[in-house]
Amino acid sequence: MGLIDAALRGALIALLVLMALALWPQRRHARRSAVVWTGIVLALSLAVQAVSASPWAEYALSCPVQAPGIGVSLASAVAFWLFARAVFDEDFRLRRRHGAVWGAVFAYGATVCLWQCWWPGFVLMRAIPVAFVLLGLAAVVAPWRADLVEKRRRWRGIVVGGGMAYALVMVVLRAGSADGRLAHGAALADVAMLLALAGFMAARLLAPRAAGLWDEAPEPAAPPPVPAPRDPQDEAVAAALARAMGEGRGYAQEGLSLAGLAAQLGTPEYRLRRVINQGLGHRNFNAYVNGLRLAEARRRLADPTERALPVLTIALDVGFGSVGPFNRAFKAETGLTPTEFRQKSLADS
Questions:
Q1: Please, what is the end-to-end C-alpha distance for the chain in angstroms?
Q2: DSSP characters for 188-247?
Q3: Same fold, 2-205 and 232-348
Q4: For an engineered disulfide with 20, which of 36, 43, 307, 341 has Cβ 3.0 to 4.6 Å away?
Q5: Which GO terms fall under molecular function for this chain's record (predicted)?
């Protein structure tokens, strides 16, 4: 069993390092740099965990020698949470506070030798991975219905969901152990599950094609083929959508969802998702709706005949539930607050 365990860990470490190397050239990707950086940190953290969680390390090495590896292993839960957010939230940006959280968890795990006899510290050690797994689950579930990219909805959900299942199983196994260490059979199951997840990811990242993690087609070397005619039902849905979101001002409905809009148009969700994604080029339903709302808000703020209308009234009328989210979304898109935008537009006119 020891040889099998060592072989699986060697294969896992090799795959994780290859994945980090495959991601490295994309670290300045225009839209997905957060996915790249969190993916690199997660891959390298799991490689360290593969060594520190081995029966040899846990049973043969002293606590001070194991401590740095324990810290990295514990902080891999933070890396997983950040990776889940980066994958599913296109507006997510890495901040210094995220690094601070990772560093704090690492420091806590790396000082295990100082408090290992203190039972509240042991409980916290087990609670940290569970907490970040739940945060990762929230990052997956919250934007799931608004995601318009079918490939991303399928395979990234499998990867992140599988990662969460793995983390929870490992926490349960360690919590059920008398000394917190994995028995040889549990350690073998641990590395086998990680290898399966890493193998799935590696098949996507290391395959000889340009499209992969970001679902983007490579630049064509030859003139692109003539596109096939669109589905007549898609055309009908696109026309109905244009009417509903144009003259019907469907975007002004507070809390509008993809399911709700599909019901109003009398079409399945998958078809509406395809029309908005492939026909209009949007990747997230909420971003699509907010774009329409902000466009209408800009038009009205620049209209001299509405100069006396309060910003709050316009925000509510275009579909925002309150002025706070409206102000943040408006400034993120234009670089100006609504009031500043109105003053500048009316002065220019």
A1: 78
A2: HHHHHHHHHHHHHHHHHHSSSSS-STT--PPPPSSPPPPPPPPPHHHHHHHHHHHHHHTT
A3: no
A4: 43
A5: DNA-binding transcription factor activity; sequence-specific DNA binding
Tell me if 251 sits within 8 A of 293, measured CB to CB.
yes
CA of residue 30 relative to chain centroid, distance: 16
CATH among 3.90.1580, 1.20.1070, 3.10.450, 1.10.10 for 2-205: 1.20.1070
The architecture of the domain spanning 232-348 is Orthogonal Bundle (1.10)
- Say what the pTM is: 0.71
Residue type, position 206, single letter: L
Q: What is the pLDDT of residue 172?
A: 73
Of 192, 135, 127, 182, the residue nearest 160 (C-alpha): 135
* Residues contacting residue 52 through CB under 8 Å, at least 6 positions apart: 58, 66, 69, 70, 72, 73
- pLDDT at residue 1, rounded to an integer: 60
Q: What is the pLDDT of residue 273?
A: 92
Q: Which residues of the chain have pLDDT under 50?
A: 209-214, 217-229
Q: List CB contacts of 158: < 8 A, sequence separation 6 or more.
A: 200
Domain segments of the chain as ranges: 2-205, 232-348
